[in-house]
Amino acid sequence: MKLSTKKLPAVPGFTAAGIACGIKDGTLLDLALIVSEVPAKAAGVFTLNRVRSPSVTWCEKALKKTREVKAVLINSGNANACVGPQGYADCKNIASTLAKELSVSPQEILIASTGIIGVPLPAEKITSAIGRITKKHSAKNWNKAADAILTTDLVRKTAVLETQLSGKTIVIGGITKGSGMIHPNMATLLGFIQTNANVESDTLQKALKEATDRSFNCITVDGDMSTNDCVILLANGVAGNPLIRYGTKAYEQFVAALTELSISLAKQIVQDGEGATKFVTVRVEGAKSRKQAHTIANSVATSSLVKTALFGEDPNWGRILAAVGYAGVPIKPDQITIALNGGVLFQNGSPSKAANQEILRKKMQKKNILLNVHLGEGEEWAELYTCDFSYDYVRINAEYTT
Asked: How many whole angstroms separate alpha carbon 45 and alpha carbon 60?
């Protein structure tokens, strides 16, 4: 498999565009379009927040009616959330307008929104721009689409992967956005992944769920879950490979490729976390089950005290051990080992005698941090990806709507 975050995330049979329609100030790009040359099979995973944007509801209903999608339209700058019945009416109007332009059914149009919650969507700005954006989509405009979905993000997030499957070249490409309000169980993000692989519909949904559980559901920036999260996967089948079905070797190969691409995109979100100065991998090993390992890793990764210690480059293992202890998982503290970038902090129930504060501080000055917690009780493991809490995180979110 060949993965790149530098190349255009273009996939055969898909085109994209990004324009400014006036939701954001000035000429900032705020409307993106993804189009499949042929109707593509579609799968989606969505936020578990019970306060949901109508765009999420629209997509879920559309995917229940049809598993084939022609296009996805995404706006940034406005979440279209918590605005009453008008929010869903706007989704319906936007989807119908784009469907008419593309000569398809509204159910073949998926919609996503991101931005400020509680502000009515200026839907007329989107509908009036549809004729313009449908004339601009091409295989060369993926970066513009990736830029058009950003909010507080500082950089675009893209990846493309090529692999051989059944003698055919399978391409998987994706764009994502996310910087704040990032937390597992469909992290606060928008993700759009395309592939030319020929995949059975139910199999495609299973593959996305499996890949998401190892990637987008393993990241956290601040522990807050949004109202608009979604990852949508489209497969147009133009590669001409034999149909991929669940439980086959081809399925395993496809999921491995999809997971690798998804992990790359997920890590890019954490690396661009609001105010982040460090990328942190929390790896919990020696657990009795993967669920236990994930629960403990999540507890450490979301601890504000751990994250501020990381920003301050303070090797405070007590905060890490406390987060392990309150995760709600039975543990034996005397069997736990905690290490930071290979330097042991805690072992056999007490601080490590080999832990030199100056050496540990130097390890913490690195941008990439590995926090390793070994429980000493089993063989299962889990990894979560997070970042530190800096002064800038507070500033950005204190001033978000002002």
From this structure: 9
Position 354 scores a pLDDT of 65
Cβ distance 161 to 211 under 8 Å?
A: no
Structure tokens that stand for 87 in this block: 């929010």
| Phi/psi of residue 101, nearest 5 degrees | -65, -35
From the candidates 114, 163, 176, 188, which is the catalytic residue?
A: 188
Beta-bridged to residue 112, according to DSSP, are 74
Map tokens 């406005």 to a residue.
78
Residue given tokens 């950089």 in the structure block: 155
Residues of the chain short of pLDDT 70, as ranges, are 179-188, 221-227, 274, 354-357, 396-397, 399-402
Q: Between vectors from CA 30 to CA 25 and to CA 32, what angle results, nearest 5°?
A: 165
pLDDT at 264: 95
Give the residue from 152, 254, 151 showing the smallest Cα distance to 196: 254
Token pair 């229940």 is found at 64
- How many other CB atoms sit within 10 Å of the CB of residue 270? 25
Domains within the chain, CATH numbers bracketed:
2-271 (3.60.70.12), 279-398 (3.10.20.340)
Q: What angle do CA 13, 15, 21 make, to 5 degrees?
A: 160
| 308 classed as catalytic | no
Rg of the Cα trace of the chain? 22
CA 296-301-307 angle, 5° bins: 140
Q: Each residue of 353-373: pLDDT tens digit?
A: 766 667 777 777 888 999 999
Give the whole-angstrom CA distance, residue 137 versus residue 173: 16
